[in-house]
Amino acid sequence: DVKLTGRNGYQFFNKTMQQNAERTAYLQMEMTKALNDQGFELYFQPIVSTQNTHIAKAEILLRWKLHGEFVSPEEFIPIAEHSGLIVPIGKWVREKAIKLINQFVEQNTPIALSVNVSTCEFLNDELQHQFIDSIKSCSEQSCKTAFPFELLTLEITESLMMDQHQNIENLLIRLREWGIKISVDDFGTGYSSLSYLANFPVDQIKIDKAFIQKIEQGARHKALVEAIASMSNALELTVTAEGVETQTQLDFVKTQKVDDIQGYFFYKPMPQQEFLALVEKQFCS
Ligand code: C2E
Ligand code: MG
Ligand code: MG
Ligand code: MG
User: Fold this and answer.
1) Whole-angstrom Cα distance, residue 201 to residue 209?
2) Among 23, 150, 234, 252, which residue has the fewest nearby CB atoms (within 10 Å)?
3) Global ipTM
4) Ligand 1: does its nearest atom lie under 6 Å from the Cβ of 121?
């Protein structure tokens, strides 16, 4: 019989909490080491155009192997956010993206790359300045001519736009003036109101995979995808469908005003070498 109160119940609760705290502290410490020892790796998930299934873009996804096993970003990103480590990690990811975009342009295989940005990287004026400065200096260093900012997309979440801070809006305006694209990731899963879409400087919406993966479940779920796609169109935003895994999902998405498709049906996230080979194959054949 299960006792919810009493000595045993209390001890069990306490022990779980302690184990969680120990795991968090351990991962935080290991992440600090990984940052210094090149322990992080970037994976690339190709995004195809709905029209012709050519690879036009890719999303960069952070990977971290600890003692031979991958730790899920769903576990380590929140810890990086709470500890502030996400700031140097995010900077590292963006610098890699900028260098690679430059490499693509030089070898005449222009692929756009998107990177995820945490709300925590924008929290105050100082962080915002650092953010701007690091993109600016890295793009200047890695490119002899003008850096093609239009090939860089920053994926933000709805929570960022919920923050009523004027300064975040100004930051995004500035980045867009350079040509950087702003994308709203996991669209439809946040708690935000839709009103921000009318005012906020964004270019793109990524329909969260939760919506796509329910397409088979019936008309009401299809109607939601349809509504998000047509609203985005009316606002002149481009639309990516995330998490397309099956032929049925693909067939339905193709009937919608969706520009791009990201999902296991076409490609899973892959290591850099594999991605570079794929890009080369596409452009050279
Ligand atoms: P996200 O930005 O929404 O990235 C898409 C996630 O969906 C990735 O999970 C990708 O592997 C997964 N995915 C793509 N297609 C499919 C599909 O067809 N089916 C299924 N089941 N999943 C699919 P991943 O790589 O585990 O990343 C999880 C989250 O971690 C990301 O979600 C993003 O929020 C965060 N993340 C990853 N890298 C970074 C980073 O460099 N910085 C920050 N701040 N967050 C990151
Ligand atoms: Mg993303
Ligand atoms: Mg997403
Ligand atoms: Mg996400």
Assistant:
1) 23
2) 234
3) 0.98
4) no
